[in-house]
Amino acid sequence: MRPGGVLPATQEVSALVPALESAVPPLARKGSGAASDLVAAYLIKACACVAIVSLVLIFIFIGKEALPVLTSAEIRQEADLGKLFLPAAEAPAFAWQPVSDPPRFSLLPLLVGTLKATVVSVLVAIPLAIAAALFTSEFAPPWVREIIKPAIELLAGIPSVVVGFFCLMVLADWLQQAFGWTFRLNAMTAGLGLSLAVIPIVYTMSEDAFNAVPRAYREGSLAMGASRWQTAWRIVLPASSAGLLAACVLGFGRAVGETMIVLMASGNSALWSLSPTASIRTFSATIAAELGEVVVGSSHYHVLFFIGAFLFVLTFLANLAGHWFTARLQRRLQGQL
Amino acid sequence: MTIENRKSKIANLPGLFFGTLTGLASLIIVAMVFIILGNIVLHGAGRISWEFLTHSPEMGMTEGGIFPAIFGTFSLVVLMTLAVVPLGVATAVYMHEYAPKRSRLVKVVRLAIQNLAGVPAIVFGLFGLGFFIEFVGRGIDRVLLDGELNYGQPAILWAALTMALLTLPTVVVASEEALRAIPQIYREAAYAMGATRWQVIRRVVLPQAVGGILTGAILAVSRGAGEVAPVMFTGAAYFLPQLPARLTDQFMELGYHVYVMTTQAPNVEETKPILYATVLVLLMLTFALNFTAIMIRARIRRRLREGR
């Protein structure tokens, strides 16, 4: 008689199931379950592949419409890689004017605009979100935690068009009254609005990273006489650094791809300027604003898809980086790094 | 006595400073949320009435209601749910129930889901235009309708499918969480009684996972009702004389309505009350959905903790 009683241990039973299933050929089993079992298995496997297929299809179809910028001679007369990225001969050197004659397709004003808005939003959102996550996981009493976490979930649930609406109608006026900028809608307004969209992502991932730090780390530190803030600053933050990096990367990816907030709050003029208080045009806003009126098959159309492909690749890489850092955090905290 | 009580409060100044700083950051975030919500409720609540919710817009969007936008959003979301929930649940079921332990396919599917979740909404809009409308729609027109332009243009069908792809990761993640929460013993008991794998899934696993799947579906619906960028070119329109009746019709949508009215309406002052009210309706819809999902999730967690 084995210790533990008559019944075999759970793991042994689970280990037997595949063996039992394969021992009896499906169609030889009695009952009506066998045929539907096979059909169900294939259908379900096919459904699971839809996710992979969709991602590949997105890549193919956006790339297909973006390719003429690189390959078609006719399109390249108006928009080839050089025209998109290098300074032009006539003034202004960098201009995004797709409806002028001849059309100008330089991507650099859009790139500058995207970077300005993204940098502003990231500089505002990341310190706020990580500090708040540190507060809720290390310092806050439970009743405070029950206010902050739902508030941030609320923020995450606000549609981006509502955030853009708020920035356009309210925030822009406040900022203009406070600072007196020339442009009412500019990179700062858009950046602040974007930060509202980035904060929940960075907060959630930072909090996950802090929670992943084993209690033993904190307890050891406290047992040696460190205060709570010393533990947080010197133990928890460094231990979760890979997770915090993942949070920043994913927040950055979200800021780059966000459309509605920038579309409504950034002024939508492709100015070539480094000032954060100038109106900007970002990549995503350009696509959203111009795709509706473009002629299918024109060079403008293909350049817009080229921008879309660029955005897709950028956020794809940001996502891969983010998840790689998260996996790295897990491995380090489990002692494998 | 804890370690901290032993230290005097005065000596712990850096800790106090640090705690205050991070607390301040949290306060700023919470304040921002309440400012936004308060502003919208303040300006929008006055305009909401039964007439507003059930009538069409009139007088160039300065009078009347937003019923077509509500109906359009509702139709979009229903179509989207019909597409995404079976697909998402099947994907989760494959990853959790069918796939062998260290299957490479599962890793690739999981990677694909994670990356789909990070694709910007406007790229989905581009995909909807380039694939669903130009490729599939035009293809259907050419093959079945002799080139007549019917499916190859913006329609609620394509918008719903685009949204379904956008929200697929939400449903898959929630469903997988639900499947993982079911103790293995239930499956083993069913197998031991001679059930096939599909019978176990259909009769034992899925009924118990319904709560988590529902949570995922509701979160997907909430996201689908709020995202505007994917539907901008795949089916949404600013003003339509009729409600969408066929799959190939265009539709009005709450979020798109807010965007167009805010940025392109000729008279901002006159449309402001309706604008705020529309935003409030959209917000209330989103929050009601999120709240329901959170409540269901809390109930499931409580039931799991009590051990059923």
Overview of the molecule:
The complex is a heterodimer of chains A (337) and B (308). In chain A, 72% of the residues lie in helices and 1% in strands. Chain A is mainly α and 337 residues long. Chain A has a domain at 108-333: Orthogonal Bundle (MetI-like fold), CATH 1.10.3720. A two-stranded antiparallel ribbon of chain A has the order 1-2. In chain A, a hairpin with a 6-residue loop joins strand 1 and strand 2. The relative contact order of chain A is 0.12. Chain B has 308 residues and is an all-alpha fold. Chain B contains eleven helices and two strands, in the order H-H-H-E-E-H-H-H-H-H-H-H-H. The two termini of chain B are 38 Å apart. Chain B has a single domain, classed as MetI-like fold (Orthogonal Bundle). In chain B, strand 1 (57-58) and strand 2 (63-64) form a beta hairpin. The chains are: A mainly alpha (337), B mainly alpha (308). At the A-B interface, helix 1, helix 2, helix 6, helix 7 and helix 8 of A face helix 2, helix 4, helix 5, helix 6 and helix 7 of B.
